[in-house]
Design a protein that fits this description.
Elements (H helix, E strand, L loop, with lengths): L1 E7 L2 H15 L4 E7 L21 E4 L9 H22 L3 E5 L3 H12 L4 E4 L10 H11 L2 E3 L3 H9 L13 H8 L5 H8 L6 E6 L10 H13 L4 E6 L7 H15 L4 E4 L4 H7 L5 E4 L3 H4 L7 E5 L12 E4 L3 H12 L1 H10 L8 H11 L14
Parallel strand pairs: 1-2, 1-4, 2-3, 4-5, 5-6, 7-8, 7-10, 8-9, 10-11, 11-12
Helix pairs in contact: 1-6, 1-14, 2-3, 3-4, 8-9, 8-12
């Protein structure tokens, strides 16, 4: 029996990984382990660990620093993650370690596994985010990994450019789409009860993360975003927490103070919606504003527009429902009015089509079961 270990550090990655975990559990050849860490254990980020259904998994919970005020505190958190993850992985001794995405916690976990000679599987590698330090984290994880599951062919090509062997790279599509299809959706009444509000006006979800490539401007940029949102009339702003990057905790405090200062009754701050509620809410809102990757990879499939602010997601593949704009009050206001325009909404519904993704998790699970990790145990740079 193969021991396969997954790690989750946030609502975003678990929502996606969960589809694969459920599929892997079906195979009697796997013993599934799950490390829960990062934002999941933090009250300020919504204590999302309680939403994780880890039935049929051996679970290890690891608390790490998540109240990151600056780059220095992120670096300290990284070292703490390496220390704790290496101990846990040594004790679990998995045959395969699955890592998703590009967070610094994921890099710490991958680095620990690599030193312990545990084969790493990287999901969603080869992507670009020029405005974020996640860019370097993601590519570093890819270089440590033995097996890759990018979500598009363009990302597969980038992995080959990085020197990864094409025989270790498989593009079966995105697990995000499977997550969207299989989500247990809440009704409008259930959401109103959960959020303690009535859906009577236009509604926008707002998630604005730090641009970690230049975190000194985070509060200035956040202030511009909030000033722009304040100018949008007859619209409820459902604001979720930025993530645990440098300046993340500072930004959360600023949002709370801003709402109180201006007595903004149409601003609703939520620490974390949770994966199911977040996807459910996308069925009832009129658009999404901010710089979250969800606005690029998930929101378009709900036939609503995304206002993508700044450079954090620069380099990702984007569809026509995404409106890019700089961190400028006037530009943000104009972009929001654009996605709320009825003609724009009609065009989105015409262009957006959800691809068939029902077999993505099955294909990945099968490859995990039969892939010859021993053959590629020795990392050799693949020259073009």
């Amino acid at each position: 029996m193969k021991r396969i270990c997954f790690i989750t550090t946030s609502r975003a990655d678990f929502g996606t990984l969960n589809e694969l975990i459920k599929e892997v559990i079906k195979h009697k050849s796997f013993l599934v382990q799950l490390i829960i860490s990062g934002n999941h254990n933090s009250k300020i980020f919504g204590k999302t660990e309680k939403e994780i259904n880890a039935k049929n998994c051996l679970v290890k919970k690891i608390s790490v620093r998540s109240k990151n005020k600056n780059s220095k505190s992120v670096a300290k958190s990284f070292s703490e993650c390496v220390n704790k993850f290496s101990n846990t992985l040594h004790n679990l001794s998995p045959d395969i370690f699955v890592v998703f995405g590009d967070r610094y916690e994921m890099l710490a976990a991958a680095l620990s596994a690599y030193i312990l000679r545990i084969p790493i599987v990287h999901i969603a590698g080869g992507e670009k985010t020029a405005g974020s330090t996640d860019e370097g984290f993601r590519h570093s994880i890819s270089k440590l990994s033995a097996l890759h599951f990018p979500t598009m062919n363009i990302y597969k090509k980038r992995l080959i450019q990085l020197g990864e062997n094409p025989k270790t790279i498989f593009n079966f599509g995105s697990l995000n789409l499977l997550k969207i299809k299989n989500n247990k959706y809440l009704t409008k009444l259930q959401l109103e009860k959960k959020l303690k509000t009535k859906f009577s006006t236009n509604k926008l979800i707002v998630t604005y993360h730090p641009e970690t490539i230049n975190d000194k401007k985070c509060i200035r940029n956040l202030s511009i975003v909030l000033d722009a949102l304040k100018k949008i009339k007859n619209t409820t702003m459902i604001i979720t927490s930025p993530n645990a990057d440098a300046q993340g905790i500072v930004m959360i405090r600023y949002i709370i103070k801003y709402i109180k200062k201006y007595k903004l009754k149409n601003f609703l701050f939520i620490k974390s919606l949770g994966s199911s509620a977040y996807l459910s809410l996308l069925r009832f809102v009129d658009g999404v504003v901010g710089n979250s990757s969800s606005g690029i990879s998930e929101v378009p499939f709900f036939n609503i527009g995304t206002v993508n602010i700044g450079d954090r997601q620069q380099g990702r593949f984007m569809v026509s429902s995404i409106v890019n704009c700089p961190v400028s009050k006037i530009s943000i206001i104009r972009s929001i009015h654009k996605i709320l325009n009825n003609n724009f909404k009609k065009q989105i519904r015409k262009n957006n089509k959800m691809e068939n993704s029902s077999k993505v998790a099955k294909k990945i699970a099968k490859k995990l079961l039969y892939f010859n990790f021993k053959k590629y145990k020795k990392k050799i740079f693949y020259d073009l």
